[in-house]
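Deliverable D5.2: sample structural annotation.
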Amino acid sequence: MMLGLSLATLRHRMAAFVGAFVALFCAAAMVCGCGTLLVTGLTSTVRPERYAAAPIVVSGDRNVHAIEKQGNGKTKEKTKPIADHAWVPADLAERIKALPSVRAVATEVTFPVLLPGGPSSESWGHGWESAPLAGLTLAAGRAPSAPDEVVVDAATAARAHLSLGATTPARTASGTLAVRVVGVTAQGFGSQAAVFFAPDRARQLAGHDGLVSAIGVFPAAPSAAADIRALLATAPTVSAAPTVSAAPTVSGGPTVSGDPTAPGTPTVPAAVVSTGDDRGTVEFTDAANAQVRLISMGAVLAGTSLLVALLVVVGTFGLSIQQRQREIAVLRAVGATGRQVRKMIGGEALVVGLAAGALGAVAGLPLGGWLHERFVALDVIPANLPVVLSPFPVLVAAAATLLSGWAAARISARRATAIKPVEALGEAELKPARPSWTRIGFGVLATAGAVVLTALLTVLHTDAASTPVCFNAVLLWCTALSLLGPVVVRGATAVLGLPLRVSRVGGYLAAHNLRAGAHRLSSVVNPLTLLIAMACTILFTATTVDHAAGAQRQRGNTADFVVGPASRRPPRRRSPPSPVCGR
């Protein structure tokens, strides 16, 4: 019976539930879109590009492992990544090639090279001997042989407008070089630029004598990976004291020395073997961080969207119940119990939530793909980390939206269904009471806490410290407004209603109606305030951090003093005397 009454109510009060439907639809779309990013970060893998043709890649371990001693004689191993590429001995390639299960090997050295018109990041130089790792072939030209000759991949050639015989400057760690393009590959890379030098020249520019950044292995038998791991297990493990230097060692990690078994001493394995999707993380060092960023951003944005939608729906249903206060009071007076009224209101929320959740969850899939494209365009994640479309975010978004709408409606109806029928009839005719002193007291405390956190933000200068304080300050301000809503709205309408009073009829009545219905207006103002505050915080936090980082870079690039060769200043020219005009 109550379900039929809920459907009839929706049919005759369609406009009252439009706000709840829009809020739940947007929440479902955002939860599904952000859930798609979350699933992508959890399950997606970075596809290899330069190592796509090599089934096995041997490289240095990019992590420093430390064993820390804890209480009760227990030890804990910690792993910290290093920022630079990890290198392995070049002679390891010959030892791997000698294995019966290995058909061929190819080595690679990697160093940064920037070309005019090319990408500002992920632009690397290599030796031409590493071309088989990606299965590259020449579409035009020949392999480089002279120190100033290079081969570029097809995508880089098109982007930088390079062709055979073109001469271009190349910025490297050794300085800016003038190079000539003698070849262009038939294949191109989508996430990086590759500039291939002659092998000897590439090793010279890399600056690591006797070391290579990776060894690609082409197996002759399925047991090649296991045989290589067994070979590496017999190699000595380099270890060191906690002091870390910038010079690479044979293990590819920081220089270390000391007892590897002593607690607190980092140990760096000589090399690691990667196969399958693990080759992508070897090639793209920031792949793991990109996945973590996707997981954190997806979870934060989805949770924030659901929270905002919940509060918006609470306000919408609260306003609807206030407008239907007489109707609910009559239902209570004719014998409807509080439980039956809650079922009716909950049924209305379930119908609205089911329709909005289903449509919004389906719309969230293309939204997730669009968000992924934007993050790629902003260089937040690599382009070769593909988006994963899964039914799991759709189901979670629909279920979360449905439950959130139902919970919001039950919360809004708790007052109207808890009082006695006679009191409900009386409250429907009486002017609403002012907020209690307890509510006002908690509102003042929330305001004081928000002021303290806002003042604290002016002395915090690190992203890790200011981000949680910023979000907590926003939540405290919104909580304070929710508690003091009727008081703040009444004062705001008294001030902002002054221009309305210029009109002696319509404006005068509108101003007094807003002031008299401040409790209803606050039900709309509170969720809108939270929505705008959270959206502005998320949008402007990133721009503020970027602006501060740019200002710091600008200050760092400007020297306070300049030290140069001593030179005698030229004699200061004396200005001619000014003519005297009269006495």
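Annotation notes: Residues 166 and 469 are 54 Å apart (CA to CA). DSSP finds 18 helices and 19 strands in the chain.
The annotation will be released with the project's public dataset once the embargo ends.
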